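Quality-control log, excerpt.
Job 1 of 2 completed; input and output follow.
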Amino acid sequence: MQNKIIVLYKSEYGFTKQYAQWIAEKLQCDCVEISAVDFNKDYKTIIFGGGLYAGKINGIKTLIKNYDKIKYKKIIVFTVGVADVNDAENIKNIVSYAKKQMPEEMFSKIKLFHFRGGMDYGKMSFIHQCMMWFMKTMLSKKPENERSDSDQAVIESYGGKFDFSDKNTINDLVRYCL
């Protein structure tokens, strides 16, 4: 384990796990599903990744619950979702979601990154399919000239399969760790 870094993740459909594995490979460190980690181990840097579902970071509650054990360590959180990370409004919303879910002390200490994942409607749970149907329905009601590229992508891809994952997007996070 190099530099006493660990990458933790909570992944429903594999996109977050893939990013976690890429990061761990690049940093030559451990990569563990968050439910299997021992927060009492002597890691200097904790990297956690969770998928975004309806504005909630999957698995973040476990990190929050163990914050007292890790608050003196370097903490990095990355989210994975379908939102276009080149759209400033999307990033603003993701930061807002994260801020609402974490205690202020924790939020002010972490470094937050966002990566773009994908969707495979055939593998989605019924609840997530319903959430996406609702989102598509709401976005479809917007006038076309008011829709963002991300809005239009959700509408057009509804019911299908797509993957925006990009291994190169982890480079800023990796540099931050070194």
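Job 2 of 2 completed; input and output follow.
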Amino acid sequence: MRTSNTIRTRGTARAAAAIVAGALALSLTACGGDDDGDEDKSGGTDKATESTVTLPKLDGESLQVAAVWTGAEQKNFKAVLAEFEKRTGAKVTFVPAQDPIINFLGSKVAGGAPPDVAMLPQPGAIKQAVDKGWAKPLGAEAVKELSENYSQGWQDIGKVGGKQYGVYYKAANKSLIWYNTQVFENAGASEPKTWDELLTAAQTVYDSGVTPFSVGGADGWTLTDWFENVYLSQAGPEKYDQLAAHEIKWTDPSVKEALTTLAQIWGKKDYIAGGAKGALQTEFPASVTQTFTGGDQPKAGMVYEGDFVQVNIGETKAKVGTDAKVFPFPAVGGDAPVVSGGDAAVILKDSKAAQALATFLASPDAATIQAKLGGYLSPNKSVDASAYPNDVQRKMAQALIAAGDDFRFDMSDQAPQAFGGTPGKGEWKALQDFLKNPKDIAGTQAKLEADASAAYGD
């Protein structure tokens, strides 16, 4: 059995989850129509212009940074890299990568031209990069920034064999459901706090003439996120940790229970925009935009995914806090789930410049720049909440920091890439097939277990 990279909390996760979910429930629904602006409402200073970290002069040095980010996410990260260039004199080139990034990096390494730094979205990918001898440990300055600015849990998930390899520059709250306000108002639907209430809200929206859910099933990772929220809330943190480490099998009754629960939505073709066939042809960005275009007659009334949905909402005319609102993923079992994800900076070519960039990304300076641009959360506890451009993001960020170590990291991101992070394979493919045929619970479990066993080397 593989040792889990999951953060092992000390019996407080469920209570913390309830606190965080409660805070989100209170705060996210209270946001008004002025939440799309860039105004710093708390009157704080412009943290992006302050320097809290000392960086070396790197005139004449050049760096390549690889990430799978596209669109606004890539553009905003480039603004952070531009600040690093300004402060050090180095030249930084962003290298667009493809999923799975570990395969992309493998081809670069084989060709003798790996990027200096890569942004890896899975702890499992970090471990693979270390096992293959690609990743280099962080230096003293980067480790110092991490220890000052990050909770122990966020430091630990960037470690392999006790050594620090990753800087979790970007975090995600993956326990959110976004909804079209006009649709809910016209239907008379209210924000649910439990799974049963979610099913009631879905039926209410359906009865009003709008399909309840938009699902980006063409991207298998969205389906794993659905499963993880249901499983964490229903089975509890201990079982979640065990399944994440493959200490229990995917044929376990707890997995059957979670898939049966998911089928209450996935098994109703009229509840999903385009039915299963349509969902499997819908990529994540389109699953968001089709929920917030078309006025009060969009293709769907709700879409599940993390805080980063805001980036895609921004591509429509909808405004976060008025046209688009959000509620915490409802409690399926005792408590609402709190699932997090993130992207870590990992050094592949050890140099003074690469270590300096990792140090910068571990500082509040870098995170504050991107926080101001929106659609981003940082696990860096030294980032002032005033940096976030609206109340929705401020409250999400505050809840993330308040959770400390009491959260669970995305389960599929902890798995070996072959099982948890490869299009058309493993968990992604098994859940896509399950979306297509939600009655085949036993077959789905058997396929998940066979693929997991092979990937974990059991």
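Post-run check on job 2. DSSP finds 21 helices and twelve strands in the chain.
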